[in-house]
Design goal:
Elements (H helix, E strand, L loop, with lengths): L1 H28 L4 H29 L1 H24 L3 H64 L2 H22 L14 H6 L4 H32 L8 H30 L2 H21 L3 H29 L5 H26 L4 H11 L2 H13 L1
């Protein structure tokens, strides 16, 4: 299952990453205003926040396999919209429509893949399967960033989006033949909104969502947004690169550590039935990483802090997903994974806003460390609940 889900999950993330080096530059070239370009780029995450719970409910009702295939199909349409917008010289409307649809498509792929990972892994191998899927999610966007920048220079923007669309077609074909339908109980009808929201009444589920918010607020939100500012403020350089190159290498280092250790962290939780305890240790690593970056003024300290953050994210991501599977019944796993995705997307949106607003040397990182430190007791409480199971 992990091998079947990885290509589609990876390419869905790549499709989003490819857009970032191309959409802003094309928008500026054709005269779009900077605020409108910002709206275009933010539309993806905003759509995922609004639709996440409903996509999760769809995965419960129609199955993760169907939801995954629909999400990949939407991503193919998204790449086509980007290319058509450039060809017909109406990039504003087509780019915005593509980003809105991509939020729905990527959300469907990520939620369905995580739901299928839970259902296939079960209690004994849930961490292993979830870790493999999350590693693909983590790697997709940075690979897309690199591929989008290189391909657009070599073959042009339209050809780049065409290549990306073809790659997702291959992923869709592979998923169609390799991803099984592993649904448990089938829902007879779509649950009402009130019933979806009622899922959050479980205190343990609320705790898991809060920890996922904290993870995305710090790692994929604030750190990735403000790292270039920190490099500029402290005049840090890696291999003689300029600010953008140094920030890119530093982000790549954090991502590699995260993706490489995520499957290992999932297996560790499986082996000792200690996913909540792994999550607690991971929260401590995240705080330690933020404090290290906030207090250091040297390249080595920054890279060490980013390694701690990568390790913390690797341990926290799959652990939270498995905990969701332990808390909710089989016929509500998709809904709960959708809610987990929403909490992460909210954190990912607020992280850049807070980070840039309070940035002042390392102050933003120390403030973020204090915020995340307040969540550690919540993770410790979850570990007590897990030990009683």
């Amino acid at each position: 299952m992990a091998l079947a889900l990885t290509p589609g999950t990876l390419l869905a993330g790549m499709a989003g990453g490819i857009a970032f080096p191309i959409l802003p530059s094309v928008g500026v070239r054709v005269g779009l205003s900077l605020p409108f370009i910002g709206v275009i780029l933010a539309a993806n995450r905003a759509t995922r926040v609004l639709a996440g719970s409903f996509v999760g409910a769809a995965a419960d009702r129609f199955g993760g396999r169907r939801t995954l295939l629909v999400g990949l199909l939407i991503n193919i349409v998204v790449m086509a919209l980007y290319a058509i917008g450039i060809v017909v010289h109406h990039v504003g409307g087509f780019f915005l429509a593509g980003r809105v649809l991509h939020g729905l498509g990527s959300g469907s792929v990520f939620i369905a893949a995580q739901t299928l990972a839970l259902q296939a892994g079960g209690a004994s191998q849930g961490g292993k399967t979830a870790g493999s899927v999350r590693a693909a999610m983590v790697l997709g966007v940075p690979i897309g960033l690199v591929a989008g920048g290189i391909l657009s220079d070599v073959v042009g923007e339209v050809a780049t989006f065409s290549i990306a669309s073809g790659a997702v077609v291959l992923a869709l074909t592979g998923a169609f033949f390799t991803v099984p339908d592993v649904r448990g109980a089938r829902l007879k009808k779509r649950p009402p909104v009130r019933q979806i929201l009622r899922e959050m009444r479980d205190t343990r589920l609320f705790a898991v969502g809060a920890l996922n918010f904290a993870l995305n607020f710090a790692a994929s939100g604030m750190v990735l947004t403000t790292l270039a500012l920190l490099v500029h403020d402290r005049a840090i350089s890696i291999f003689g690169r300029d600010e953008q190159g140094t920030a890119g290498l530093a982000m790549g280092w954090m991502t590699i550590v995260d993706a490489a250790t995520t499957p290992l962290a999932g297996r560790l939780g499986d082996r000792f039935r200690a996913h909540a305890r792994v999550a607690t240790g991971s929260m401590i690593l995240l705080v330690l990483g933020l404090v290290t970056i906030g207090l250091t003024s040297h390249r080595g300290g920054m890279m060490l802090g980013l390694a701690f953050i990568g390790l913390g994210a690797a341990g926290l991501g799959p652990s939270l997903l498995v905990l969701v599977g332990e808390i909710v019944p089989d016929d509500r796993q998709g809904t709960s994974v959708g809610m987990l995705q929403v909490t992460g997307d909210v954190g990912g949106m607020l992280g850049p806003l807070v980070g840039t607003a309070i940035f002042g040397g390392g102050r933003a990182y120390l403030v973020a460390a204090a915020v995340l430190g307040a969540f550690i007791p919540l993770a410790a409480w979850l570990s007590k609940v897990e030990r009683r199971k």
